[in-house]
Amino acid sequence: MLYQRDQQYGGGEHLCPVQQVWETGQPIRFTQTRYDQEGNARWLDVTASPLRDSAGRVTHMIEAYRDVTAERQLEERLSGVHALGRELVLSREDRQIAQVTVDAAVFLLQSQLCRLWLTDEEERVMTPQACAGRTESMNLYPLPLDDEESIVVAVARSGEPHYASTDAGQGNRSVLCVPLEVKEKVIGVLSTENDRPDGFDETDQRLFSTLADYSALALENARLYEAEREQRQLVEQSQAQLVQSEKLAATGRMAASLAHEINNPLQAIHNSLQLVLNFQLEPDEQHEYLKMANDEVERLIGIGTRILSFARRPRKDMRPTDLNAVIKKTLALAEKYFQHRHISLHRELSPNLPRVLAAHSELEQVFLNLALNAVESMPEGGTIRISSHSTENGQLAIIFSDTGHGISPEHLEHIFEPFFSTKDDGTGLGLSVSYDVIKRHGGEITVQSVLGEGTTFTVLLPVMQE
Which is nearest to 18 in space by CA: 53, 58, 54, 55? Predict the structure, then answer.
């Protein structure tokens, strides 16, 4: 549209750029929204430029309009796909990702049917994961990868999009299939159908391919997340089995002491009952011997309870834990073992320590293992010192020191490695398991040793946050 300088202009509701061009002498460009006779919005790209005479004066202004409705609609649809894609990538469940994808495709493309297929290389089939739209022709059966007639299989093989109008028997239908690719590998196919011939244009194909890319990435993320979760479960199960085997091994290492601890009350019970059964005793005497037998039975129950509590499989839940109580319980279990090995035990446990968040039974295993290792480093007897205190950086320190033979420097650097042991009959798992347990609790375990003088293990655990 060409305007002269003295021409009347002004156009009702819509911005007219003529006046601005006259006043500034500079071209302008902007987008304008208008509505057609049906009330549909149309977007126009408007450019207004000045025309000058030989003296440089603006004498005319030319205004050009370009309909950019299709481009604007594509931008809006692509924006919607990108927003959906960002949500998909955060999903962790493949079935949900597949269903959201096909639902979105039906809405964006106004198609009658959309299906998502995943490739199963082991079974050599394409398996349908989700379907949206028309259901009467829904195929929920796997497609063999050697199917020569299936468009879906052809796209999975070639990795190339496919768009065609085919004879459906009752009129034409348009079919659009795009591959789901991850790192140039086809993991599936997204297919959609429209009852109209030429039902999809280039814009639809672009949108569909973009949606497929997001879906493929989300599905791969979900697969990796599930694989990582399963691997983590296997590791946790293996660690739990190692902890359990070490508990049983520790119980075995104390077997002789435990047998002696159990035998003493059994002998006392036997003697008391023999006196009651075989001799004519006064009622008061009978009562005294029976009470002695009863006390020893209760003692046995306590011993059995401690052994079972220690040997049972650990609970998975982390609870507020009093470390001093765990240490005392562990030492009570090994008390007779220390006595039989001529070990002097010194405890310096700071009172009123803050609690830690921990699996109670796992810490018992760590502390017992450190105590037994200390005992076995002193075959002729010696001293174990166990202390606990708070540190300045918000941790609790538990220290096990012995006066044993110590660990050589070349062995010290491997001490926490699995299957490394300085003992001929050792499994090499005790300290490795202990190291993993403390790491899972957010702490650390260190060792210092001097040959001929002894060894010190320090366990640091974070204080539980209120």
Answer: 58
Number of H helices, E strands in the chain: 11, 17
Structure tokens at 121: 């290389």
Question: Per the domain annotation, does 207 fall within a domain?
Answer: yes
- Tell me the three state secondary structure of residue 212: helix
Same domain, 78 and 23: no
Element (H, E) at 169: none
- pTM for this structure? 0.44
The residue assigned the tokens 């071209």 is 27
The β-bridge partners of 390 are 396
Q: Would you give the distance in Å from CA 16 to the centre of its chain?
A: 58
Residue 457: inside a domain, yes or no?
Answer: yes
Q: Which domain holds residue 390?
A: 317-466
SS3 per residue for 19-59: HHHHHHCCCEEEEEEEECCCCCEEEEEEEEEEEECCCCCEE
Query: Is 386 part of any domain?
Result: yes
Residue 41 sits in the same domain as residue 94: no
Tell me if 224 sits within 8 A of 182, measured CB to CB. Answer: no
The model's confidence at residue 6, banded by pLDDT at 50, 70 and 90, is low
CA dihedral 460, 463, 464, 466 (to 10 degrees): -170
In order of 213, 247, 361, 383, the CA distances from 460 in angstroms are 47, 22, 17, 22
Percent of the chain, pLDDT > 70? Answer: 77
Confidence of residue 80 (pLDDT cuts 50, 70, 90): low
What's the half-sphere exposure (Cβ side, CA atoms, 13 Å) at 331?
18
427 by Cβ neighbours in 10 Å (0-12 / 13-18 / 19+) ranks as middle
Same domain, 222 and 335: no
Q: Are residues 56 and 83 in the same domain?
A: no
Instruction: Indicate the number of domains in the chain.
Output: 3
CB 85 within 8 A of CB 203: no
Boundary residue ending a domain (67, 93, 109): 67
- For residues 341 and 203, state if they share a domain: no
**433, 242 Cβ separation under 8 angstroms:** yes
Separation of alpha carbons 188 and 115, rounded Å: 11
Domain boundary pick from 227, 255, 287: 227
- Phi and psi for 27 in degrees, rounded to 5? -70, 155
**pLDDT digits over 291-328, tens only?**
878 877 877 776 666 566 555 555 556 889 999 999 99
- 428 alpha-carbon distance from chain centroid: 30
From the CA atom positions of the chain, what is the Rg in Å? 40
Better-predicted residue by pLDDT, 180 or 199: 180
The conformation of residue 7, written as its DSSP 8-state character, comes to: -
Question: Do 152 and 126 touch, CB atoms closer than 8 A?
Answer: yes
